[in-house]
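Whiteboard transcription, Tuesday session. T.W. wrote the structure tokens on the left side:
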């Protein structure tokens, strides 16, 4: 029997805190900072659905709908802050029934310090423990091993390798998809404790 859909709508806006980061719901004012970060080709070429160079009006429009998405329970997008400064974004989107998709990106100066894992771990926990989702999907370009490492460390399992269109690159890329079930996450965090 298919389990009933998770009730993701009408959730209060929450800030998640980790050892080194604050993850707060995005606001329209974050569009400018996101534009700066995504003006770096090394960041945006890894984001399959993003435009390069980024368009300021599109970015403003996108950040302008995040609050409605949150209220509707269709996407939950968090600005990643380190010492009060936005260094990236981590989100759950494409929420449908009990499934959702995890994504993240950071400014280049913040790479290599474990921040993506730390932020994503908090949001995965939010997805399973607070929203009641049963399964998360994610994925990365085949030439993005750092993202693969983050997903594997979270407990995601590789699924399929396929060709997909990349908007930022303007061509097809090899894409590796992953998934993580809430049960596997719970067993894993139980083992970690
Ligand atoms: C992918 C990204 C979020 C990783 O952020 P990060 O904070 O540097 O990630 P973490 O530090 O948590 O972990 C990265 C891991 O990948 C490893 N790594 C980094 N570059 C690597 C490479 N070229 N090959 C293999 N492993 C690599 C790191 O050593 C680290 O592993 P460790 O924890 O075992 O030491 C960041 O590089 C980024 O924002 N990239 C551009 C946007 C993007 O790719 N978003 C994801 C789209 S799927």
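and on the right, the sequence the group agreed on:
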């Amino acid at each position: 029997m298919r389990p009933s859909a998770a009730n993701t709508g009408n959730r209060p806006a929450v800030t998640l805190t980790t050892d080194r980061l604050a993850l707060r719901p995005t606001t329209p004012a974050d569009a400018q900072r996101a534009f700066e970060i995504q003006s770096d080709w090394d960041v945006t070429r890894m984001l399959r659905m993003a435009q390069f160079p980024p368009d300021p009006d599109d970015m403003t429009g996108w950040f302008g709908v995040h609050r409605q998405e949150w209220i509707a329970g269709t996407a939950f997008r968090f600005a990643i802050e380190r010492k009060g400064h936005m260094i990236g974004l981590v989100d759950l989107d494409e929420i449908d029934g009990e499934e959702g998709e995890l994504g993240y990106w950071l400014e280049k100066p913040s790479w290599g310090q474990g921040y993506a894992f730390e932020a994503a771990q908090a949001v995965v926990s939010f997805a399973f423990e607070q929203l009641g989702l049963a399964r998360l999907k994610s994925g990365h370009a085949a030439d993005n091993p750092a993202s693969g490492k983050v997903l594997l460390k979270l407990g995601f399992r590789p699924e399929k390798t396929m060709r997909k269109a990349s908007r930022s690159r303007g061509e097809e890329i090899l894409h590796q998809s992953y998934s993580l079930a809430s049960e596997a996450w719970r067993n894993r965090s139980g083992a970690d404790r």
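Someone added at the bottom: The mean pLDDT is 95.
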